[in-house]
Design the sequence.
């Protein structure tokens, strides 16, 4: 939605934001809150300013678009399958790009992460182990009063966790390589 009207500046700003997220996540394994809040506000102002609807409607549209990924991906955060920084990053994407475009970007990014993870697990000969662990985890959720964290037993964090932001950035690039800048 937002990328269609006056989209080049928002496209460029989202590129800078996601590149920064990818670099932070890759080097420090976290995305700082100040980075996300800064870009959430900058992109929010640009989206509201570029909108062709009334100011209250533009603000409402931006906020609802930004909140949706937090609602959808919150259960993954509760199970410690993703970090809060990743969810906030997804929020900035859908806020700036709109729900439809935002979820296209997220889809491409998650697909890239899934392909990389599959290849990684096959090459390390841990694919069946990880599938078994995941199925055991799902079984352990039945009857549980709280959601236990999803983490491997006896495995280092580096072995079982990936930095999601570089893949979301790749998904952003793939989305516009495939579909062009709208």
Sequence:
């Amino acid at each position: 939605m937002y990328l269609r009207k006056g989209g080049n500046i928002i496209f460029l700003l989202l590129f800078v934001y996601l590149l920064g997220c990818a670099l932070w996540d890759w080097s420090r394994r976290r995305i700082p809150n100040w980075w996300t809040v800064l870009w959430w506000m900058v992109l929010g102002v640009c989206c509201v300013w570029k909108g062709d609807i009334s100011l209250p409607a533009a603000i409402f549209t931006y906020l609802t678009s930004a909140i949706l990924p937090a609602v959808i991906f919150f259960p993954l955060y509760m199970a410690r399958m993703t970090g809060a920084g990743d969810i906030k990053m997804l929020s900035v994407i859908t806020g700036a790009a709109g729900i439809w475009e935002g979820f296209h970007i997220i889809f491409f990014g998650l697909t890239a992460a899934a392909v990389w993870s599959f290849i990684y697990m096959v090459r390390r000969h841990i694919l069946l182990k990880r599938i078994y662990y995941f199925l055991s985890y799902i079984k352990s959720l039945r009857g549980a009063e709280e959601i236990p964290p999803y983490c491997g037993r006896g495995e280092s964090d580096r072995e079982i966790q990936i930095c999601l932001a570089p893949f979301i950035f790749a998904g952003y690039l793939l989305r516009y390589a495939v579909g062009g800048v709208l």
User: Anything to note?
Assistant: DSSP finds eight helices and no strands in the chain.
